[in-house]
Specification:
4 copies of one chain form a homotetramer. With about 350 residues, chain A is an alpha/beta fold. Chain A folds into 2 domains: about 130 residues, NAD(P)-binding Rossmann-like Domain (Rossmann fold, 3-Layer(aba) Sandwich); about 180 residues, NAD(P)-binding Rossmann-like Domain (Rossmann fold, 3-Layer(aba) Sandwich). Chain A has 13 helices and 13 strands. In chain A, the strands form 2 sheets. A 7-stranded parallel β-sheet of chain A has the order 8-7-6-9-10-11-12, sandwiched between helices. A 6-stranded mixed β-sheet of chain A has the order 2-1-3-4-5-13, with helices on both faces. In chain A, helix 6 packs across helix 8. The first copy, chain A, starts with 5 loop residues before the first strand and ends in a 17-residue tail after the last strand. In chain A, about 50% of the residues are buried. Chains in contact: A-B, A-C, B-D, C-D.
């Protein structure tokens, strides 16, 4: 017998150990009764326990009936990183059940990787290191043929959600002119963040560096195609941080191969690409194996955010840290669920 | 016959085309009479022309007699980047001749390279790219074993002159705890720049990232030796941006080889190192062939600074952009002059 | 006949001319069909028009039946500044009708007034001006007995919503130590804004300046009482910017009268206070007749925010600028509606 | 017998107690042998003591002979706030004696007063308080007829030395467009501080707020005359923080009297003005009796700066905190010495 609130825990493909620091996990276990289960076994829980559950941590498939049985539910916390079409969101909204997601934890690590990639591309950090090890380094000014500064340059950010904002924040010290494009936000919100609203075309045509941070949606597949790359500044850097589907990948690689632009990407249409995938051998690129956000410290911040918001909801207050699913947009997302972290 | 002020120009190893944009060079030629010469031929100029010269652009060897002959001289502008012991500085100070240097132009490009190197080390950007091309990349979380964030971390800056300040400025968006050590500055000046004054020992023992930006002086040769590296945090990044002489290079490489720390360096005791120099094959390092500051846009800013300050001095005002040699410190510097840009 | 979306407009006590610039109002009229009415006449609209209305601008009393008749309603936009208990919010939430408010427009003007008051109190700007006009000014150091700097000082902000954040933003250049107390937010959110989470007691005991920006709620009436003022630093400044009910007014005035603290207030328990109200003659105070937010430019920003969010909602996207009523908190607010602007 | 360095101390019109905190004064006395004297008695010191003196704290009249007798002198530290024409500066420069001044301590307090005055003018803080006490306050929007926001506005700073920079720093949180005019600085230095270089005319014609921070020089007497005020925006605020001589005072008062502009001033042509001086009764003004910089905490920072720089000079390093007299400009200043603090 306990009077601690009941939390159903089905965090697959995460584990509690992954999304909590040891201290936070101890606090979570101390303050709540956890029913640790898997998605396909939730339906088998006793009805009185389902009715008692205050929170659900995880993003299991949920039928309308099952959700209906969870009569005391206040929030569902997605710990995967993307909303998928596997639960009756509308019923949640009607009942005032918050559907929350901790994806913001990835913004900072991905933004740092993105900035590191941009600097590495513009200053040839990786290729010059390889050349040095091979004994063919070029010294001083001669080795800086295509080098560019970010400071004082024009930088574009496509998508201005958590990740785009994190990229912009890291640029604070660069005195750059930052342009942002986000069709889901009014220009005023962009200006409030100190960036200049711009069309995608203006960003492509005028920026030395373009960070792609937009989530993939029903509308923006292959937003960046051969025509888009053709409009970019010669020698500009294109940094793909969000999802491969937003880009015509062969067109992007071709633009890099021809030396028109430099490309860095953390994501690929198929992960991993095959051994003979041209991505592996295209020059003027920088490749990262979906590692930008997957830091242990990032995952562990999920637990902190979760504890903070459960505390608020326990006190009858709205959550303040996790992001909420929106009625208007939850159905527009097109990310595939990940099978591993 | 002209009434434009006379400038003796002996910029070797730079050229005017290197240190001016075309527009700025046209303005320079328009506003001044330039006597373009080389260091060893200045003495051969007619005495009345020497007497007439208002400025000397370059850092040629100057005897006391030759300086004495330049009776109208207001300033000497070093465009190499370091003061060397080849002219009678004391006589300049007595006569109120400003001895100026444009080394600040290198601060921003070197700082960007330094930040890029730090991000590349902490996120394995270069080595993971090499692995990806070789078909042995590791995906997601598994590929991030030693990854660290700069955001929210503790970062040390050794030397807080132009370069140290530029590094600190680039860190503005990282919400990091920045510690700085500079024995030539009081703690209050460091605090005014928003960094925490610290001892070198505290920086070594507690920082995840250490940027070395200190000029080499009579006192700080081999400031970083085996004992220093042994005190550093396991896995910390050591970024050498200033001069190789400040470091015990074999000790630094050994610390990297043993995996204790990660090292990036833009400078080497001998440049280039021999083909079999161990620096070329040490793991956990990132190598750059003295390329951090040698950007065309950096050199070309020299001309802008020079024109600005000549304009001020023409108006009887003190220079405001170029840095002045100081009586106290000009003799303490130990940089070797560079033979090429 | 029109195919523009129908908006029911009942903005009393505002007018459209007050909450829109002329250009924005023209755009509003161009893009929407406006049915301009008053709160008590909405129920008399033809049922088909009620069913057709996409938005309601204003905060009229709404019965459940009337709301039920507005079957196409997507959002209600409160232009008064506080939510009041005069409509069936729960039904709105269930139906996904956004209940929005433009109160953020007041944050910036109120924050500026607050900072101006703080500087005026600490530097005796108003009282020294009065003394100067009366010929009894005190010069230089002698006239600065109780003067304090904000720069480098410890400053407390009570309540960290739109207004508290605006105050904090204005303090960006002061290098102050800013503490914030907000029981509705986790410490992490405060830290993300660069302020130190603190208890109310710590703020009272240690800050030289305390800005009160918290909305009045069911829980915080007379949060600042005689005991609270007794804990404050001698000579500290107490700036009341939100609602008079949060303070024991006589106790506040008494603390000022005794010279323990300095007080500035923009709000009063009864407005206006009677002619002989002691507030009018208490020394060490600075009085403002509920003028801090009531700027024409502030009201006119309401229209911009409204147009931005209607544009988003027209496109099937969630609003991004106006603040939403929350199920958890909309019933906790206790502000009286204003009868005039 | 002592081996502590000798410091001649003649700080009139300051005292050591005024320019040092007790702790700093104890440290000063501990580390140095102080010869406390007055300006007209220095010449009477024994020659061997004069020869021994390493530093002189104060700004006494010094003859060439007397300076010549101080053969070991490294620095003269002016603690008054302005250089005056009472010592052989050229001989100091030739000998490498630093002539230093602690005037930077006043920048922060004066800037805070200036910002407080600007906010008070634009929001009628002082006059509305007076009206409230007199029972004639005007509530809400009606009481804000001429109110303006600094946020997002255009602000001019005339003179961009320590004080102008301090004003600009305080404006960091206001998202304002800051223009600066300073004929002694190139545009690039202004841009480096994040302000837009502008002509005086552009500032006068376009800014809502103008801060005058320029020192009075040989060239800028009555820089602001009737024609200048006539060009200002109606309702703009003119904040005079530096010296009265830079302004045609009757013209300034007349512009305020006619309601064209609002004026705040901390300085007056004669201090104090006579009892019937029109300055005392001009409407639309805010008057301060030369109190902006005269804070005890400001004076006491002089001692900290002095100790820091003496420490550096003791170590053979150049001073880093106090400002140095410049050969080019030291003779251009026209401030009268102050007779009291």
């Amino acid at each position: 017998m306990t009077d601690r609130p009941l939390v159903i825990v089905a965090p697959h493909p995460r584990t509690l150990e992954m999304i909590f620091t040891p201290d936070a996990l101890a606090a979570f276990r101390e303050r709540y009764e956890l029913w640790e289960t898997s998605g396909d076994e939730i339906a088998a829980l006793p009805p009185e326990r389902l009715a008692e559950a205050r929170y659900l941590v995880g993003q299991p498939d949920l039928s309308a009936d099952l959700l209906g049985a969870m009569t005391g539910l206040r929030a569902i916390v997605n710990v995967e990183g993307n909303f998928t079409d596997n639960m009756p969101y509308t019923a949640c909204f009607e009942r005032g059940i918050h559907v929350l997601i901790a994806s913001a934890v990835f913004a900072e690590p991905v933004a740092e990787m993105g900035l590191g990639m941009a600097l590495a591309l513009h200053r040839s950090i990786a290729s010059a290191d390889a050349d040095f090890r091979a004994g063919r380094e070029v010294w001083g000014l001669d080795g800086n043929g295509s080098a560019r500064l970010l400071s004082g340059s024009r930088i574009g950010i496509v998508g201005f959600g958590d990740l785009g904002r994190a990229v912009n924040r890291l640029l604070a010290g660069f005195r750059a002119e930052v342009l942002a494009f986000d069709p889901w936000l009014p220009a005023s919100v962009l200006r409030d963040h100190g960036v200049a609203p711009a069309s995608l075309d203006e960003i492509l045509r005028t920026c030395d560096t373009v960070f792609v941070t937009a989530a993939i949606t029903a509308e923006n597949g292959h937003l960046f195609d051969a025509a888009a790359f053709a409009r970019m500044q010669p020698g500009a850097a294109f940094i793909l941080l969000s999802r491969a589907g937003i880009v015509d990948f062969p067109a992007m690689l071709e633009a890099a191969r021809r030396g028109r632009i430099k490309v860095a990407t953390d994501v690929f249409p198929e992960e991993p690409p095959t051994a003979d995938d041209p991505a592996r051998s295209t020059p003027n690129t920088l490749l990262s194996a979906h590692r930008a956000g997957a830091l242990d410290v990032a995952f562990q911040r999920m637990g902190d955010m979760l504890l903070d918001d459960l505390t608020l909801m326990d006190a009858g207050l709205p959550p303040a840290r996790l992001r909420r699913a929106e009625r208007e947009t939850v159905g527009r997302m097109r990310s595939k669920p990940v099978s591993k972290s």
